[in-house]
Amino acid sequence: MTLSPSEHDHLTQQRQHFPALQTKTYFNYGGQGPLPQGAIAAINAAHYQLQEVGPFSFGAYVLVGQETDLTRNAIAQNLQVPAQTITLTDNVLTGCNIVLWGVPWQSGDHILLSDCEYPAVVATVQELQRRFGIEYSFCPLMDTLNQGDPVAVMQEHLQPKTRLVILSHVLWNTGKVLPMKAMVQVCHEANAQVLVDAAQSVGVLPLNLTDLNADFYAFTGHKWWCGPAGLGALYVNPVAYDSLRPTFIGWRGVLKDDQGHPIGFLDDGQRFEVSTYDFTSLIALREAIALHNSWGTAEERFQRILSLSEYLWQQLVTMPHLHCFRTTPPECGLVFFQVKSANPKIHSAVVQALEKQGFLLRTILEPDCIRACVNYLTLESEIDALVTTLKTVLAELVGAG
Ligand SMILES: Cc1ncc(COP(=O)(O)O)c(C=O)c1O
């Protein structure tokens, strides 16, 4: 993993693009990535450009349309799918909602979720139950972190009326990377569609969504891709397209005749887009994605993430007052640890103490622990500094050396 001097220079130059990385030791990429300077500048420049053209004008229409196409294409290209399959959204959960409210549910339909799905996704499913009388249940994937086969566990929990299975590609609270292609195949064989929560996979795993073949893949630009908050996307597999109806409807998705009357919907990803949006964020996300690609391929970045997370995990497992859930090195950039303490608020206390010293991590409630995210941008020296500071913080808070 040790970088050659030229590789180290290359990484240092890359990090210079991120103002937040100059003043912070950043381990929260899975919450929100730091925005590169070029993206901030692009937002500013795009606002000026729009004012010069006239915010509501033919010129603006052309400009916004061109930029939207370019970003849709960039997202599609990075995920290896046609651009027409991409719906631009605000974030992960908007994409999940488009799918969850877009399926024409029948009373008695069943949704299967993993037991590690994001609470707001579970809340949406609960609301579907109240409105439409659907059923839902969970399959226990949290316990497959170190042993067991998630495909088999999920399969056992499919029911004859299971219409949709909701799975996160990377489990946000354990870091398990699910064997998604195999899981999708099993679901399809059982006539169930698959909605993937891709909050923690896009920008981390090298992805080919065509090959993965999930029906719906909801993600965001603002986490591992380090784009601006408020811009995400949803991939809808062409084979699943007709099973979804638009719920929120606006001019972006409506098909009109020559008189401007609505006569249906567009027949690509735009169908599920709604109304006026901030086009500057599209340019900023493109800048961020291009910057990552300029450093290395998705595979190269992922390999660096893997070696860095292993480096951190190896140090954490040797600390006597910590417990790491994983018995083998992490499979992605999410690293979790628990502090052995009788204090129920110990994890908040540790995270707050670390933040005071410039180290940004987060707590997780279930399982009760602390999460550190390493990206390819992370330096080994940052990991060393985190471990040293963590030892000091633990010595103060739990008397651990
Ligand atoms: C697994 C998972 N799903 C959904 C979300 C929500 O993402 P967003 O804010 O983009 O809707 C998060 C955010 O951390 C997440 O980790």
Concise synopsis of the structure shown:
This protein has helices spanning 5-16, 19-23, 37-53, 58-79, 92-102, 119-132, 150-157, 180-189, 209-212, 279-295, 298-317, 346-356, 380-398; strands at residues 25-26, 86-89, 110-114, 135-139, 162-168, 193-197, 216-220, 232-236, 254-256, 262-265, 322-323, 334-339, 359-360, 362-364, 369-373. By secondary structure, it is an alpha/beta fold. α4 (58-79) packs parallel to α10 and α11 (298-317) runs parallel beside α13 (380-398).
End-to-end distance: 28 Å
CATH superfamily assignment of the largest domain? Type I PLP-dependent aspartate aminotransferase-like (Major domain)
Indicate the radius of gyration in whole angstroms: 22 Å
CATH class of the largest domain: Alpha Beta
How many distinct helices? Answer: 13
Which descriptor suits the 3D outline? globular
- Across the major sheet, the strand order is 2-8-7-6-5-3-4
CATH architecture of the largest domain: 3-Layer(aba) Sandwich
Q: Are any ligands bound, and if so which?
A: pyridoxal-5'-phosphate
Number of domains: 2
Total strands: the figure is 15
CATH topology of the largest domain: Aspartate Aminotransferase, domain 2
Q: Tell me what portion of residues adopts beta-strand conformation.
A: 15-25%
Give the structural class: alpha/beta
> What profile does the largest beta sheet have?
7 strands, mixed
The average pLDDT score comes to: 97
